[in-house]
Backbone:
């Protein structure tokens, strides 16, 4: 059975949501990152970074939430969480899936740490450029690829959830608020949030 190494209140929520969308059985293994559980050598062999989430599927081991979501989408094709091979939508699918770690994460870090870099040199430009691009992409909706919900929405939806609702570092633009409302209406996110809250 697939195994998710996770901790509540962390980026693990992305992978919990993804697994709930996939609708497959999986085992959860709690890693107590607030008390050093991530330093367990056995866990470090799965994720040498000692961070959650991490994932095992038989002999396959991986970490990085975007990679885990992409892996699950391919592992569970019946759930339809990624455009199929040959579908031109796959272009934008990868674009937005990689936009999360490549642009949104560093934009968040920039906001928290309040540092400046030349926007042409920083791979993500700057915080405003990232969220302007996202707002434009989400304008039409309902999802980042249009009609098709995908793993890219799990990554981006979770970031907006944390950025707009929890940390309030992203301004609640109407497009983001409407998108978040659609995300919250998904039973899979509701289940994932309940699991997360129960710890
Ligand atoms: N790039 C990673 C980030 C994972 C991450 O930073 N996880 C944090 C919790 S949100 C963590 O495990 N921190 C514990 C530590 O660094 O010791 C991903 O997207 O999965």
Residues:
């Amino acid at each position: 059975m697939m195994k998710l190494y996770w901790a509540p209140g962390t980026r693990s929520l992305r992978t919990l949501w993804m697994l709930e969308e996939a609708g497959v059985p999986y085992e959860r293994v709690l890693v107590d990152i607030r008390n050093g559980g991530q330093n367990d050598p056995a866990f470090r062999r799965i994720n040498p970074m000692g961070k959650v989430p991490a994932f095992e599927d038989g002999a396959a081991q991986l970490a990085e939430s975007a990679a885990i979501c992409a892996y699950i989408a391919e592992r569970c094709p019946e759930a339809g969480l990624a455009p199929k091979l040959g579908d031109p939508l796959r272009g934008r699918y990868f674009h937005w899936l990689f936009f999360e770690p490549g642009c949104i994460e560093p934009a968040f870090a920039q906001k928290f740490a309040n540092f400046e870099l030349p926007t042409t040199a920083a791979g993500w430009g700057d915080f405003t450029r990232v969220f302007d691009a996202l707002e434009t992409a989400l304008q039409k909706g309902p999802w980042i690829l249009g009609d098709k919900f995908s793993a890219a929405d799990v990554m981006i939806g979770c970031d907006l959830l944390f950025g707009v609702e929890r940390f309030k570092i992203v301004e609640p633009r109407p497009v983001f608020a409407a998108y978040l409302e659609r995300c919250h209406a998904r039973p899979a996110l509701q289940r994932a949030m309940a699991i997360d809250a129960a710890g």
